[in-house]
Amino acid sequence: MTIEEMVTQARVAMEEISGYDQEQVDKMLYVISKAVFEQAEPLAKLAIEETRLGRLDHKIGKNQGMATNIFASLKDKASVDVIREIPEEGLVEIAHPVGVIGSVTPTTNPTITPLGNGLMALKGKNAMIVSPHPRSKKTTKETIELMREALVSVGAPRDLLQVIEEPSIELSQGLMQSVDLIVATGGPGLVKSAYSSGHPAYGVGPGNVQAILDRDFDVEVAAELSVIGRSFDNGIVCACQQSLIYPQEKETEVFEALSQKQAAVITDKEDLAKLRNTLFIDGRANPDMIGQDPKIIADAAGVEIPADSQIIAVKVDAVGKSELFCKEKMAPVLALKSYDTFEEAVGFAKENLLLEGAGHSAGLFSQTKEHQIYAGEVLPVSRVVVNQPTIDAGGSPANGLNPTVSLGCGSWGNNIISENLTYTHLINISRVALPIQPKHDGKPWD
């Protein structure tokens, strides 16, 4: 089937639900979320088998977490017909679909990206066509098939959701040139293609999430949160913590706490060099090490670590372009850097972000509000996640960020939004403007 035929089917399906009310729309979201939640483990196993990336237990949790979190964030929101009235402004807001959405998805998240984008698309009565990464096409196809069957179970047309079964660069580009709006999740080349398609597009920027440990925060808790944030799905999630910047005088305490939380702390210069040369080739990430278990990485480098290590933590003496470990590492490897003053710590984090990952997210373990605000003022990021695992930058029941699979990075990351993508980005809004009493007499400067 050609892209043009798929788009035509999507438009026909959209017309079939054009009269749906809010209850019918939310019913579609409910059955889709439930279907993926119930099949979280088989989908995770298929992803591991197909991509050879990440951890099975984390992929199961990721599939379940996104199914519940995104649905919960959308279920009570108005997205059909009149969605808001503002009497004092004389405004009535009415929602409209943007049309057929093209979703280009990565090999790192073959289930949750089509799920999350699909829920947000359907919330606004749009259709969506997915172009999966070739390396994860089976998992994405199975995910979409589950979602399509769920639609049919409530009488909705299955062609609201479709997938390119044999993806290619040419078909992805054809999709982007044929749809009404694009959500591109992937590398800078993909995002640039989306922006050059002639259609509106939401892209994402690379992650390189820096985290700072303040002097007033419990070291053991910070170590636990850092291991969670770095180990998640073996580090392939863009919001995974990449560094821990800690007070110099607490180095021994920090290293011991990390070791107790199953981090293999490496300080030996020769071992550090071996790991650096294994993780990077000519300054770029070694594809063979992406998403692999810590023991596999250590064995490849010829470095001894405990067999049950959740992450490898490497001590560095430099930041920014002087140290490869300060780049994004799509593997469970955490850079450790000491600081003297809090301002210096924020400066280190900023330098690493300007090397790679500007606009994405940062983490902060601190009880001091002034430091929390200072980090938000100085760091070039769209999210500062405080006293949580940095993976919660993608939205969590325990914070106010929109649960999402697409984290906008603002102009820092060459993106149009500096927030988490949600359904409001995938609807058009008509504003009916009624007359009100004038707000000023024509001379507001008096």
Indicate the mean pLDDT: 96
Sheet with the most strands, sense and barrel status: 7 strands, parallel
Task: Tell me the Rg in angstroms.
Answer: 23 Å
Number of helices: 14
Task: Give the low-confidence spans.
Answer: none
Query: Which strands sit side by side, in order, in the main sheet?
Result: 10-13-14-9-8-15-16
* N/C terminus separation: 66 Å
Give the overall silhouette: globular
Secondary structure tally: strands: 17
Provide structural commentary.
The chain is an alpha/beta fold. Helix content is 39%, strand content 19%. The protein is built from 14 helices and 17 strands. The chain has helices at residues 3-16, 22-38, 40-51, 56-74, 112-123, 137-153, 169-178, 188-195, 219-231, 251-260, 269-279, 294-301, 342-355, 369-378; strands spanning 81-86, 91-97, 100-104, 127-131, 161-163, 181-184, 201-203, 209-213, 241-247, 263-266, 280-281, 284-285, 311-315, 333-339, 359-365, 381-386, 427-433. The protein has a 7-stranded parallel sheet with strand order 10-13-14-9-8-15-16, with helices on both faces. Helix 5 links the parallel strand 3 and strand 4 (127-131). Helix 2 (22-38) packs antiparallel against helix 4. The longest helix has 19 residues, at 56-74. It is globular, with a radius of gyration of 23 Å. The model has no long low-confidence stretch (mean pLDDT 96).
Which helices and strands, and how do they pair?
Blueprint: H1 3-16, H2 22-38, H3 40-51, H4 56-74, E1 81-86, E2 91-97, E3 100-104, H5 112-123, E4 127-131, H6 137-153, E5 161-163, H7 169-178, E6 181-184, H8 188-195, E7 201-203, E8 209-213, H9 219-231, E9 241-247, H10 251-260, E10 263-266, H11 269-279, E11 280-281, E12 284-285, H12 294-301, E13 311-315, E14 333-339, H13 342-355, E15 359-365, H14 369-378, E16 381-386, E17 427-433
Parallel strand pairs: 3-4, 3-6, 4-5, 6-7, 8-9, 8-15, 9-14, 10-13, 13-14, 15-16
Antiparallel strand pairs: 1-2, 2-17, 11-12
